[in-house]
Protein 1
Amino acid sequence: MSDTPPLTPPSPRASLVAYIHAVWAIIWKDLAAELRSRELVSAMLVFSLLMILIFNFALELDTQAKANLTSGVLWATFAFAGTLGLNRSMATEKDRGCLDGLLLAPVDRSAIFFGKAAGNLVFMLIVEAIILPIYSVLYSTNLFKPGLLLVILLGSVGYVAVGTLLASMAVQARTRDVLLPILLFPVAIPVLIAAVKGSSGFLEGARMDDITPWLNLLAVYDVIFIAVSFMIFDYVVEE
Amino acid sequence: MNRQPRKLVILNIVTLILLVAATLVVFLYAPMEAKMGNVQKVFYFHLAAAWVGMIGFSVAVIAGIAYLITNQRKWDIAGLAAVEVSLVFFFIAIVAGSIWARRTWGTWWTWDPRLTSAAIVELVYAAYLMLRQGIEDPDRRARFGAVYAIIAFISVPITFFSIRILRTIHPDLNQSGSGGMGLTPKMLHTLLFSLFVFSFVFADLYWHRLRLGQLTDKIEQLRLKVLE
């Protein structure tokens, strides 16, 4: 037998680097696949535009859409498009056996969660970034206020954190396509409430005092559910 | 077929007697309320049913956590039974509340924090059952049920809180909450007795549902064994 040095556990710094490496690898895999096929973002985008169209007739929005209607329409659109993206993202993972492959890799399960959640967040943000200018043009409102962008970011983070966890459960059920909205919407209601109120606050130019409770609520929700989802994810993917 | 254990038979009888007693107490002992009249008596059973419905949620979460830690099937059965029975009780509470609201507020429903949260809790229970329905593997079904129970349990208080902030910043025109009614001592007695009785009803139904769950589990295991 050759003189192999005894195995020593990796230093904490090395483990952290490996962890970040794993998360990044998963994000990169999703982005690369999406770049080639462009099926996820295009589906979410077309769906969002159709939703804005339907809302136009359902709510009879005129060209000077009022601020509170705008935030409601935007967030309803983001919520439904987000569900689409989450479903597709986790479904391809399961159908092509990628999830099994990832689970076999010598990487912490929570890295898989963060990688998938970050990837889902990127897709949702891309769609939102395209929808905002389109909506601004269609309804002659300026949606590029920094406060609004902050609300959209915080809201999307919370939505995607819970959504990734619930989507990984939903895709393993028979009724996979309908199940995710049924599971996600009741649980994501605080995000929707706070995001809509925060968005309309920024659009109307309300006082910061009135808006900060909603921002705080979003931040608290994000922290709680990122922590809970990341801890529970193990139980969802174990075989 | 397993026969009902003796204690359960006794519980059935006791519960039935208590339920009759509670009805009599509500109609004969509790005083007539000045403004609302007879319809106010719905309140006793409405509150008792709602209270019991909330217990079920807590039981489901505890059972869920216990299942994830121990992996014993009995916790899964306990959680499912709690959610199913609570779903029914909560629905009773919502309907009874609607009847009362129609008479006193003139509307079947308002979107105030408590009612909205009640509707959300009911939908969460239903979502839990739909999640379980869609999964065939018993172990996975139990795990996912536990996970969803935990997630939902954490989100419901946050939801209630956020709806409350929503309604206080934009005050609702329909400001007549159910707390706007003073309770005389006799009303308080009636209420406490109703709570007591409904706890018995819950325990009785819950025990029956547990037995049903155990039998279902046994059948499923036999079926899986045959299919192998």
Protein 2
Amino acid sequence: MAEPQVPEVRTPAAPKQHEKYPWPEHPTLVGTRMKRLDGPVKVTGAAKYAYDINRPGQLHGRILRSPHPHARVVSIDLTAAQKAPGVKAAMNVIDPGKEVMYQGDEVAAIAATTEDQARDALRLIKVQYEVLPNIATIAQAMQDGAPKIFKDGNIAEGEAQESGDLDAGFKAAAHIVEASYETQVLTHVCLETHGCVCEWQGDNLTAWASTQAVHGTREGFAEALGIPQSNVRVITEYMGGGFGSKFGPDIQGIVCAKLAKQAGAAVKMMLDRKEEHLAAGNRPSSFSKIKAGVGADGMLTAFDAVSWGTGGAGVGAGFPLPYIYRFPNRRRKHRDIYTNAGQARAMRAPGHPQGCFHTEMLMDELADKVKMDPVEFRIKNLPPEAPNAMWRTYYPIAAEMFGWSRRHPTGDPSTGPIKRGMGCAANQWGGGGRGSKAHCEINADGSVVMRCGTQDIGVGTRTHVTMVTAETLGIPMDMVKAEIGDSNYPFSGGSGGSTTSPSVAPAIRVTSGKARDALFARVAPTVGVDAASLVAVNGRIQSKDDASKGLPWKDACRLLGTEPVSVDGEWEAGLSASGSSGVQFAEVEVDVETGVTRVSRIVCVQDCGLILDPLTAESQCIGGMVAGVNYALFENRLLDRNTGIMVNPNMEFYLLAGPADIPKIEVKLMNQPERGVIGIGEPPTISTAAAIANAVRNATGVTVRSLPLSPDKVLTALAEREKTGGTL
Amino acid sequence: MAFDGDNDSEAHQPDEQSGFSVSRRSFLKTVGGTSIAAGVLAPGATDAQAGPAPVGPGAVPIELSINGKTHKLSVEPRVTLLDAMRDRLDITGLKRVCDRGTCGACTVIVDGRTIYSCSHLAIEMQGRAIKTVEGLTAGTVLHPVQQAFCDHDGLMCGFCTPGFVVSAAALLEKNPKPTAEQAKAALAGNICRCGTYSRVLEAVLDTKGVSRG
């Protein structure tokens, strides 16, 4: 299913501020660099992740997975495994007769006293497979006579999307570029693998899960197990990375719950690293064949592309194309290719890094045709500026920070094997929010609890909830306890699509505002003023007209007696927005003798509306760019093209950047307080790989149109140039 | 730990069930006195000869000294130090991530040197002074490098963080004022997926008050 092309950027209506609880004009906490409150428990190892939960009498679960990328399970015999030492529960996960569709597809499962016993018992399960033909590569799926693996065919053709007059566009072009671009499959490599601990008390299930969505996971458990959602509680106090791959219980969670039921004991089921690579999601590959035209004046005229990609067994691989820049006449046709490989899941800005890479590389190739500076060329072809489309402003700011004026034309003219180059790229993302609910209690002792069924996937949500509550109540943060990560707390959606902050922060602002108003109503008679004239500032409840008429926070709260303030609130419009934009510049050093690329610097200019906490927002940008370095240079899920077996399901051959691979990173956040809160999880990771790829091109003078930019590809491109006499 | 064995469809007998039982002496006769590793022989095969007593494959009592405290536990000889601490002793600060010596999330300090606890057997670690991330904190006072991680936001999801903290503390106790290159080298065995590296490095270089250990 092809995703629609990126729509033209529309200027959002002038943002309307929340009437009752707008963001403060002069905040004391919001917008300050706030150290994350759970830093100490994380740096001391005290934080308990799902992986760290050890329940009394807890068993360990393991899953037997298909070694074949495509096979029919003829029979499963658990008898010997059930008798093995320590085994307390065993089950089929797939029904005999059904097909496994990729290496790592679940077959059966065991729970035993120790994990080693469970592993031993897996080897005693006798499975008879009828091995079936498999498709490991896109080429195999597309070739004539390919085995039809998937019910509706191996290829899902999308509708062609067309606008303008393509023929006229190409006729108006002074230059045409025709090129093919491609990106690889990544896996999420969450350091805490997927999994959970499940424990039953009668018909009630508690699951300590590593998830980005406690409520969504509760729903998933209830639906799969056929029990009411009210019988399920999902707890995620801390979680070790998700990046879009952890939104439900998954098969391993359901299996864990069933094994726990069967054994009558808590079961821990955490995937191992190999399982994580095979079966816990990935970012699909992407390919395009593009023909694009540009006028002698540097204006884009036409864009015609076919694209495809694979998200594995039956999952789509759509991505936006072209990305951001305006081609007045364009056509794009996309097809999803299905292969016998692990299924894609959302991964940090789904589709955008791919679309950005294809388009931004094309932009540099087109800019060279008209001999224009790539930044100037991009600015010429951007959509009109709008609050969610600020690239015209950001490109010059970032170029100045970066020292773009020192860029040489394509191909470093210096002698010696180390070639330096610069590149740039832009990003856009939605990142709006809605729907979160919260509950706030103000107690007679002055303590405050804010509960929200969101979760912190590493961005600092707990800190931000505390900060907004304390800001609204005019008290120090250490008087507020933020309770999150539990499906027993008020509903909040999954942490995906950069929606958490714009969903949660408004809910917290409204809920703490309501709690404050309730407190005002209770203390107003004692203060002797109208409740409407009270404000909560500097740890006091006082008249806004006369600071002497008031009470310290604790004295005010003492008036609550035995009945605390206890209010519910939820997300309301006027405190958040959708739509962010940013640009990035990268500098690389390429050794043309070894083909090895090092990224030396990245500059990022990024907005996300009202910035709650610059410290953690910058960390999001830094992390996103490091992920982009990985995408550009290192990560690559490799399947053997003959067998369909993954050859690097580990962390030594599935490459990830280490401390020595990290460039100098500069982040400039652009504050847009009038827009309210916008998420920043995904946008900074979108444009990094494209900027690096353009920098490699600028350094070497050859164009590597394929990620990752591994040494072999760089050397091959350089050798090609030698052969063809040194032209680009 | 298990590489490809997990997905084997063929039945395979684990050692406990194979009936493998032979006295050490007769085994030595058979193989002509070649030295053999402890741990492959069945229980009950001990005799009074010199050399390490054979143990396993069943659970055997061991003692581990962790953060200055002695823990008695019973584990099979194949159990790694990492799993023994996490699963048997509920010491969970160190994490299992790659489980094969690549990522550093399970890093502990043993007799002053960092090791990957996923790559050492618990039974081998008897009589050694093991320090985990939990052992860096003095009461409620953070180790200076832990404080620096917090101050510089050198963490996000936090799952790699204990391993980075331990590697950094081990470096700083040897070299309280490392250069950036030295710090990168000392942390080269640790991987972070959230991408906190630059702030981790800032934290390590800005840590004050670590005395040479």
